[in-house]
Design brief:
about 400 residues, alpha/beta, eight-stranded mixed β-sheet, two-stranded antiparallel sheet, 12 helices, about 35% helix, Beta-1,4-glucuronyltransferase 1
């Protein structure tokens, strides 16, 4: 009996030591982040030459929301709640996250059933697609950016450039919310304290002759901290961080290289509003998502705006299914030929075409889809350089 007590006591002691170790470790990581912030506060890389950029955060978040009848109906139907986008610093596994470091001026006060959030991820070299995505999506975008070490500085350069130097900068400022994350083993020396400070990061759009400067995100990738440190890209960590930061009921988890059809948000919300049977409103119903066919075209080809323009490219063999030559089974479309031949009864109206389970011939399917945010999170063991199926959930 005495031996059992001693074993139990020893077990409890070891458990207590383990808990103390975890607490101490978290405290050290918190102190490291605080120290990085304090170095900047005391003058480390202070961007004194930065233009004064007023933050619209306080003014815009206090404005009352105007909700359309459709938004009010859907909000009641979906039982979702409105919430503001707020800057938060949090730990996500071994990563530190600054969520909503800079939030979209319109996105931060978007009602939960008013729009759909395009959630995506990348590093600062992915910014070349952002303007096109913002113009075509015309709605909230949640962008999680991997920023180990000095890559955070280059990321701030890129954020300021796309928000201030492009024809589509207004849309990017209105809709794109930027989140940065980095592992506790590769902390940046400088992290902005808040959005106001991040917006004071210095930037230049033109040189002394008035010529537009080369975007900072087009620089050679070999100079990146990530490359120099031989780090893998945690793609599914970024996907989950982008999802966690949204304030709309519906999301579209997507790669930033994929450009949506024009008017997709309005068409989808109109569809679920007029045909509520496509929604899983009862807990007794099986969860469902809404996959979208994805195609790829040559780099020099004009992006089609709708199905008619896409069909024209397919007929000319200037378009094909996404990754058709890499993984044909990953992005096949159920009833593909019927979908090709089907005409939409009402122009610019979205409708449900077919229902399919991810099994049998579609067991390797990796669709991009609109869904609510209750879907399983992405498997964070998967990296960009790892398994072929990067969308494991």
């Amino acid at each position: 009996m005495a031996v059992q007590v001693n074993k139990r006591s020893l077990f409890l002691l070891l458990l207590l030591v383990f808990v103390i170790f975890l607490v101490a470790r978290n405290l050290r990581e918190t102190q490291k982040l605080a120290a990085a912030l304090e170095r900047h506060k005391l003058g480390h890389r202070v961007p004194s030459e930065a233009p004064a950029v007023a933050s619209p955060f306080k003014a815009s978040t206090e404005e009352p929301l105007w909700l359309s009848p459709r938004t009010q109906d859907l909000q009641e139907l979906l039982k979702c709640r409105n919430r503001r986008l707020r800057l938060q610093k949090k730990q996500h596994g071994k990563y530190w996250v600054v969520q909503n470091l800079i939030s979209g001026r319109l996105s931060r006060r978007m009602a939960c059933a008013e729009s759909i959030t395009y959630t995506t991820n990348g590093d600062y070299t992915f910014f070349d697609n952002l303007e096109t995505v913002a113009e075509r999506w015309f709605g909230p975008i949640s962008f999680a950016i991997h920023t180990p070490g000095y890559d955070l500085n280059a990321t701030l350069d890129a954020i300021q450039y796309v928000r201030n130097c492009l024809p589509g900068s207004q849309l990017i400022s209105d809709f794109v919310s930027f989140h940065v994350y980095f592992s506790n083993e590769h902390m940046p020396e400088y992290v902005p304290l808040d959005e106001e400070e991040a917006l004071k990061w210095p930037y230049r759009c033109v040189d002394g002759n008035g010529t537009l400067l080369t975007p900072p995100y087009l620089q050679n990738r070999t100079a990146m901290y990530k490359v120099q440190a031989n780090l893998t890209y945690p793609i599914n960590v970024g996907r989950n961080i982008a999802r966690n930061a949204v304030n709309t009921h519906f999301i579209f988890a997507c790669d930033i290289e994929l450009f949506p059809s024009l008017g997709l948000i309005e068409q989808f919300l109109d569809m679920v509003h007029r045909n509520r049977s496509v929604l899983a409103l009862s807990p007794n119903q099986r969860p469902r998502v809404y996959p979208l066919p994805v195609f790829e075209i040559p780099e020099n080809e004009q992006v089609p705006n709708d199905k008619l323009e896409l069909l024209d490219l397919l007929q000319k063999r200037r378009a094909q299914l996404f990754h058709a030559k890499v993984c044909a089974s990953c992005h096949k479309v159920p009833g593909y030929q019927r979908w090709i031949n089907r005409t939409t009864p009402v122009p610019d109206e979205l409708e449900l075409f077919s229902m399919t389970l991810r099994q049998d011939t579609f067991r390797h399917w990796e669709p991009f889809y609109i869904s609510d945010n209750k879907e399983p999170v992405f498997d964070e063991r998967v990296t960009w350089e790892g398994q072929s199926n990067k969308r494991i959930q």
